[in-house]
């Protein structure tokens, strides 16, 4: 299913196959398979041959199975996220860093650590091909005031982390689409958790500028660069120390279009946080523009869903094709889907593509 999401986006198909000379289609040599036109030609030939039977890239998957490390080889259930990471890493290793494959998925994270003693800020940057987002258990979330159907019985407030859930609100409103679900986590909230500041305390940390040890510091992650294709991974599988691994079924609410990542960018996020604390929210709404006076927003084009629990399950994918039509890909069964179907799914991997918006948009 992760492969379906990757190959569905036309730009990613073109970038993967490149412009190299024709190689033998579906060669067992994965490097040749990805470098030549065999992948693209075979996919398009299968799509326009007139057959209504679904096409399964068995040779490609077998080639990948032969090349993959021991962690992905075998007959047990494998994780779609692990396959995605392994697949993207292999693509980058086969191409130079400037190849469109690397450019399409590559972004940069910035880590800034500020010493409490001397206020020195040290900054490091690391590349990423996807972002993994923490998904807390539903019991750890405070449910918002949700508009309920008047016919629904009012839910009894529950305790969550020592606090009380907000009382229900009667009538229809913006929250009505959530229905009866409690413990709703928004994608923007998960991104805020990723980029929120954290305190570093203890004797282990020492400032490289003033040499102070144990005085503490503040660390914050922000996004230094955004990729054209943004992949977000919801960390649904929890591995508590010494405990039994579980799957987190918390509902993740995500935008279908116009995902705005500007509040999490390095050059905007810290200043926005300071001005917001001073009562000035103007910075948060200011566009992060490039020299052409435009900025990117992201539209969803694929979602990978895991059905089941930690011990086993099944992966399906929702894919956006053509003029916005959505399809559910469940192995060999492909069926039409609505935006509502996509919005209410339990997202595990989210695939977004950037589009450019002008200053006045």
From TrEMBL:
Superkingdom as given in the UniProt entry: Eukaryota
Family: Belongs to the peptidase C19 family.
Name recorded for this polypeptide: ubiquitinyl hydrolase 1
Residue span, USP domain: 1-355
Catalytic activity, reaction form: Thiol-dependent hydrolysis of ester, thioester, amide, peptide and isopeptide bonds formed by the C-terminal Gly of ubiquitin (a 76-residue protein attached to proteins as an intracellular targeting signal)
EC numbers, comma separated: 3.4.19.12
Single GO biological process annotation from the record: proteolysis
Signal peptide as annotated in the record: none
Organism whose genome encodes this protein: Auxenochlorella protothecoides
Molecular-function GO term, any one: cysteine-type deubiquitinase activity
Keyword Protease: yes
Name of a matching Pfam family: UCH
InterPro entries with a match to the protein in the record: Papain-like_cys_pep_sf, Peptidase_C19_UCH, Ub_carboxyl-term_hydrolase, USP, USP_CS
Keywords: Hydrolase, Protease, Thiol protease, Ubl conjugation pathway
Top class in the EC scheme: hydrolase
């Amino acid at each position: 299913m992760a492969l379906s999401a990757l190959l569905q986006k036309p730009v990613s198909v073109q970038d993967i196959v490149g412009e190299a000379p024709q190689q033998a289609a579906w060669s067992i040599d994965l490097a040749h398979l990805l470098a030549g036109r065999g992948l693209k030609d075979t996919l398009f030939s299968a799509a326009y041959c007139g057959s209504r039977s679904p096409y399964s890239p068995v040779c490609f998957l077998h080639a990948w199975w032969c090349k993959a490390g021991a962690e992905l080889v075998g007959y047990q259930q494998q994780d779609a996220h692990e396959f995605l990471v392994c697949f993207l890493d292999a693509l980058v290793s086969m191409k130079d860093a400037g190849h469109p494959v690397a450019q399409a998925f590559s972004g940069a994270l910035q880590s800034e650590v500020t010493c409490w003693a001397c206020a020195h800020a040290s900054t490091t940057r690391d590349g990423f091909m996807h972002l993994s987002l923490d998904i807390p258990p539903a019991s750890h979330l405070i449910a918002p005031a949700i508009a309920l159907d008047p016919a629904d019985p009012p839910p009894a407030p529950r305790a969550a982390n020592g606090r009380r859930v907000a009382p229900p609100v009667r009538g229809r409103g913006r929250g009505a689409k959530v229905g009866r679900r409690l413990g709703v986590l928004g994608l923007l909230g998960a991104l805020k958790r990723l980029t929120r500041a954290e305190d570093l305390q203890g004797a282990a940390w020492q400032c490289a500028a003033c040499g102070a040890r144990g005085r503490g510091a503040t660390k914050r992650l922000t996004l230094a660069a955004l990729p054209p294709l943004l992949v977000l991974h919801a960390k649904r599988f929890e591995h508590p120390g010494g405990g039994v691994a579980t799957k987190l079924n918390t509902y993740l609410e995500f935008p279908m279009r116009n995902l705005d990542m500007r509040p999490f960018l390095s050059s905007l996020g810290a200043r926005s946080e300071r001005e917001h604390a001073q009562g000035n929210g103007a910075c948060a709404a200011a566009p992060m523009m490039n020299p052409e006076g435009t900025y990117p927003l992201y539209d969803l084009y694929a979602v990978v869903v895991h059905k089941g629990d930690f011990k086993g399950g099944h992966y399906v994918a929702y894919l956006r094709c053509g003029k916005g039509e959505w399809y559910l890909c469940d192995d060999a069964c492909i069926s039409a889907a609505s935006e509502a179907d996509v919005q209410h799914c339990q997202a595990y991997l989210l695939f977004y593509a950037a589009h450019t918006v002008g200053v006045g948009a």
